[in-house]
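Researcher: Quick test of sequence recovery. Tokens follow.
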């Protein structure tokens, strides 16, 4: 199956470079591009794009707002944020808006291709440890008031899995911690995402931090 990609970046040279790189890869097709986020949602919906490479900082509609609009208009599409700095303070807001991960613009070609395939397959791009590091750093700098719910649709075991996931544990590590199979952990993660209406592991981690289930300090 061909992965359809939309490019959204205000720098023409970046778009040209990405188009050339992706155009040479089997199973990947660039189906559209824009110089800012205005109209990105409509373009993704009309082209049936699977993945959007979205610049974070653009004139007009920036990457955060455009990501939220894309996610609302095309729930099956996945957004990868492109940023100049790997610790850009706006990355967390883009993840809250629905992005499935982020890449710095000087990411090697092979990693870029892998990232597109990973996200197109429905997985979050950030590794568990990278997710924990990113969220802990940003939430420590600008913490939000925890909104611990009075009740939750999750079972006790699912809360355990979510807590370990939010602390940066991989599925294999969670399985070892809970003395269950990795398949069982994957089933629990899928159930957590479905019950909470979340898109991927990144969104689950953000939910855990914002609801006070875990804290940046651990």
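Model:
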């Amino acid at each position: 199956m061909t992965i359809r990609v939309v490019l959204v970046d205000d720098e023409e040279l970046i778009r040209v470079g990405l188009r050339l790189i992706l155009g040479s890869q089997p199973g990947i097709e660039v189906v559209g591009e824009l110089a800012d986020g205005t109209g990105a949602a409509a373009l993704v919906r009309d082209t049936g794009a699977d993945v959007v490479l979205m610049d974070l900082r653009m004139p007009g509609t920036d990457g955060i707002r455009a990501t939220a609009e894309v996610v609302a208009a095309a729930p099956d599409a996945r957004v990868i944020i492109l940023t100049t700095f790997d610790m850009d303070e706006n990355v967390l807001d883009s993840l809250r808006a629905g992005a499935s991960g982020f890449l710095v613009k000087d990411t090697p070609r092979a990693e870029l291709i892998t990232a597109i395939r990973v996200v197109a397959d429905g997985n979050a791009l950030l590794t568990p440890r990278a997710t924990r590091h990113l969220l802990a750093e940003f939430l420590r700098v600008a913490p939000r008031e925890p909104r611990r719910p009075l009740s939750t649709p999750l079972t006790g075991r699912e809360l355990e899995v979510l807590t370990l996931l939010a602390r940066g544990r991989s599925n294999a590590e969670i399985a070892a911690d809970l003395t269950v199979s990795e398949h069982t952990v994957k089933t629990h993660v899928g159930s957590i995402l479905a019950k909470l209406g979340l898109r991927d592991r990144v969104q689950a981690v953000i939910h855990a931090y914002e609801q006070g289930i875990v804290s940046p300090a651990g």
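The first helix runs from residue 12 to 23.
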